[in-house]
Write a structure and sequence with these properties.
- By secondary structure, this protein is α/β, with parallel strands linked by helices.
- The chain has two domains: 314 residues, Zn peptidases (Aminopeptidase); 201 residues, Glucose Oxidase, domain 1 (3-Layer(bba) Sandwich).
- The protein has 15 helices and 21 strands.
- It has a 17-stranded mixed sheet that branches. Strands 7-8 form a two-stranded antiparallel ribbon.
- The chain binds zinc ion (ZN).
- The site of zinc ion has 6 residues, from helix 10.
């Protein structure tokens, strides 16, 4: 009896030690992810000492020094020729447009006021820009999308002209998921796309008719953004191939413009129907803009853990380090701390790095940790990385990015922004079960959030990219409560001086997300297959 018991115990132990080594290793690594660490990191990165982490300021130096010391402490290898830093050359341009956009033609002359009725900027590094009698033409949504058999510019010559376009894409407001993507915004709905396409067609200027609902933000976001200098990646042609003027018209201004042109605003609805043809407005735009600019260097921060078997294949975790720095004083505070945007996500990434480093058995693929610069200025650091990758993009397995991780405690959901794009969703779904959570699509896909954070730079280059975190269903207080918290946070703290660390913060939810997404990356890092884009994704053909 005794010996039998002994034997079976022995064989169980044997089984345990042979099959479970990996599991012990994984569980130990998971245990290094702690809420205390996350609090410490977020509190530090969001403190006044970091001066709002603005690129090319003292705040950048302080942030870079801190991230370097953290990467060293964790034991990440420098990823850029012995350094943690990748130089990112930026152009800061200050546009000073005329106060008036003057419209002439049909024996009329009237104008629109800057900031209340129109906003305008330019990427062109050119001292003076002039729109002189530039013919206005309404080109509907301004979209050329072969996969939807859609071309608003068909047979049109807009060289030297000013195009007027609608925001979002024709699918918005339809319940038809097969028409573009229904209410989910495609990339064709983003304002950045509208300007890119207008430039490809040779237009001199492009004005987008603003509408808060399909845009996903109010006119205030457009007009506030117009006064500050803008950052772009430095361009060898000084962006001479971009439109001279990129701008917006308010709803009221656009209505007036159509009225004066003798056109019905019903055309805005017609433009969403197949077969719509662009319409010349027989009016011209006139304005001048003075520009000044300077070139400066900012930095991405990259640390890597080399894979044991396939070190040239990589999983990239990312979070942007930058925020808005020191700005306009509100209630005695002028530091835009960015504790949630994006301190919590940096903390999330550092905790995942620590967990990977603590593994006794090194993953087969490499894992890169990328803290990007200038996300707030248009995903510039991430775009720069994608244009100058350290690992070949074709061997980049996935990008797992995070941004705006809210401090409202544990969530049952894992919200996937851009749900349905790639097989990475399935990895998250599988892991969600283990953690007694469930995945859900972003409830507001029409705002195009998928195109508004760093992972999009990877998606645009064909690399499957994931943006996922708990957000909508509080474990303790439910969905309504979570929605109220999120809504209030966006209204009171988003991009404001009040985005600060507070003692009441509960980062247990971010801790859960770190564990779950560490496991997603861990699984990917030991596989030899590559997750794919799903059928119907606008990025599938790029891979
Ligand atoms: Zn952010």
């Amino acid at each position: 009896m005794k010996s039998i018991v002994f034997l079976s115990l022995f064989s169980i132990l044997l089984l345990f030690s042979s099959c479970k080594t990996n599991n012990f290793d994984l569980e130990n690594a998971l245990a290094t992810i702690s809420v205390e660490d996350l609090v410490h990191q977020s509190k530090t990165l969001g403190s006044d000492e970091f001066m709002g982490r603005k690129p090319c300021t003292e705040g950048e130096t302080i942030t870079l020094n801190y991230l370097e010391s953290e990467y060293k402490r964790i034991g990440l290898e420098p990823a850029v020729d012995g350094s943690y830093f990748q130089d990112v050359s930026l152009m800061e341009i200050l546009n000073t447009p005329d106060d008036k956009l003057k419209i002439t033609g049909k024996g009329k002359a009237f104008d629109f006021d800057l900031l209340t009725e129109f906003a305008a900027f330019s990427m062109r590094a050119q001292k003076e820009i002039k729109l002189d009698q530039s013919e206005l033409i309404f080109v509907g949504y301004g979209i050329v999308a072969p996969e939807y058999n859609w071309n608003d510019y068909e047979g049109l010559d807009v060289k030297g002209k000013t195009v007027v376009v609608l925001v979002n894409d024709p699918g918005f407001g339809t319940e038809d998921e097969s028409f573009f993507k229904g209410n989910s915004m495609t990339y064709y709905g983003r304002w950045t796309y509208k300007y890119e396409e207008a430039a490809r067609r040779g237009a001199d200027a492009c004005f987008i008719i603003h509408d808060s609902k399909p845009a996903g933000y109010g006119w205030g976001v457009v007009s506030n953004g117009n006064e500050a200098p803008r950052l772009f990646l430095t361009d060898e042609n000084n962006y001479a191939d971009r439109c001279a003027v990129q701008g917006w018209l308010s709803q009221d201004a656009a209505k007036k413009l159509f009225e004066e042109a003798g056109l019905s605003v019903d055309l805005w609805k017609t433009a969403a129907k197949p077969g719509f043809k662009a319409i010349p407005m027989n009016l011209s735009a006139n304005m001048e803009m003075k520009n000044s600019w300077r070139i400066d260097t900012s930095h991405n921060v990259l640390g890597v853990l080399r894979g044991s078997k396939r070190p040239d294949e990589v999983i990239i975790y990312s979070a942007h380090w930058d925020h808005f720095g020191i700005g306009r004083k509100v209630d005695g505070d002028s530091i835009y701390n960015g504790a949630v945007d994006n301190g919590t996500s940096l903390a999330w990434m550092l905790e995942i790095a620590e967990a990977f480093k603590s593994l006794k058995e090194r993953p087969e693929r490499s894992v890169l940790f990328l803290a990007t610069t200038a996300e707030e200025s248009g995903l510039l650091g991430a775009s720069y990385y994608v244009q100058h990758p350290i690992f070949e993009l074709s061997k980049t397995v996935a990008n797992i990015n995070n941004d705006l991780m809210l401090p409202y405690g544990r969530m049952k959901d894992v919200m996937i922004t851009g749900y349905g794009q790639s097989e990475l969703d399935d990895y998250v779904a599988e892991m969600a079960i283990k953690y007694d959570r469930y995945i859900m699509p972003d409830p507001n896909p029409h705002t195009g959030m998928y195109f508004r954070a760093d992972h999009f730079a990877f998606a645009k280059a064909g690399v499957p990219a994931l943006f996922a975190r708990g957000n909508c269903d509080s474990r303790e207080f439910g969905k309504e409560w979570a929605l109220e918290k999120e809504t209030n946070w966006l209204a009171n703290n988003y991009h404001k001086v009040t985005d600060e660390y507070e003692e009441w913060w509960d980062l247990n939810g971010v801790t859960d997300d770190a564990k779950l997404l560490f496991e997603v990356g861990y699984k990917l890092s030991n596989e030899s297959t590559f997750p794919k884009w799903k059928e119907g994704s606008e990025f599938k053909s790029l891979r």
